[in-house]
Amino acid sequence: MAGAKILCVCQEIFPYLPESPIATTCRTLSQAMQERGFEIRTFMPRFGCINERRNQLHEVIRLSGMNLIINDNDHQLIIKVASIPAARVQIYFIDNDEYFAPRKATFRDADGEEFEDNDQRAIFFARGVLETVKKLRWKPDVVHCHSWFSAAVPLYLRNCYTDEPLFSSAKIVFSIYDDSFKGVWGDAFRQTMLGEGVPVEKLDEYGVLTYENIVKLVIDNADGIVVEAEQLPAEVEEYLAKSGKKVLRPTGDITSEEKLSQYKEFYDSIL
Fold first, then answer.
1. Domain spans of the chain, in order of start
2. Tens digit of pLDDT for each residue in 185-208?
């Protein structure tokens, strides 16, 4: 539906991070859907490995400064923006002096080990996106979350922002890629979510929050699922099949008109 508003919540976007299926899809979709008449707002984390000077990021003072409480600690929310060259697409970056800026990496340290607080970083990212959209007074029709680092967004929307008029009618789409994490989202994630108002049974029914169980949780809180992964874990595939949710398994290259049309038709069907 031309004119509809799509909030894209991305864990990585090219050219700010190297090309990958996620980074390329998020960059291409943002531009292509905007060119097709949708109104787009796109967010990603401001990882410390992103060169601010080269990519011309600058802070938006009127949107920055809020403190978000994660695991009983205050963390300052910093918002930066940049425009993708030749694309007329503006990207909003969620930044913080503990979770993102000092670490010259995305999700793993120099030894290839996952950061132990990736779950808390994901919470901060989700809250940062939603609170910034509130400050912008922008009402999305679709919230499209790309891959596991955005997984807290659907949980927040369906449990903690239900009385917020800006999000009350938004449809949620979640894209699954060939990208996962090996650890678990532990007590810090659980306690923060409970403190935000998520009912305990909404978390406990999934057991240990492994990657597979996080994806199941998101499936239950989404209206539509996009499968960009070549092969899903067997238990996720089975869970998705039983969920009754609308599913898109797009084919072709992300830059092709065929694939972009599949996405547009899927958005239209969700709306």
1. 5-270
2. 988 899 999 988 898 888 999 999
The residue-averaged pLDDT of 242-246 equals: 97
By CB atoms closer than 10 A (0-12, 13-18, 19+), residue 168 is exposed
In 195-271, DSSP assigns E strands to 224-227, 246-248
Ramachandran class of 197: left when φ > 0, alpha when ψ lies in -120 to 50, beta otherwise: left
What whole-number distance in Å separates Cα of residue 160 and Cα of residue 245? 22
What's the whole-model pTM score?
A: 0.96
Q: What is the DSSP letter of 78?
A: E
Q: Is the domain 5-270 a CATH 3.40.50.2000 member?
A: yes
Pick from 109, 122, 144, 140: nearest CA to 248: 144
Q: How far apart are CA 265 and CA 62, in angstroms?
A: 36
Can you tell me the distance from the alpha carbon of 44 to that of 70, in angstroms, rounded to the nearest whole number? Answer: 19
Residue 103 and residue 241: Cα distance in Å, rounded? 38
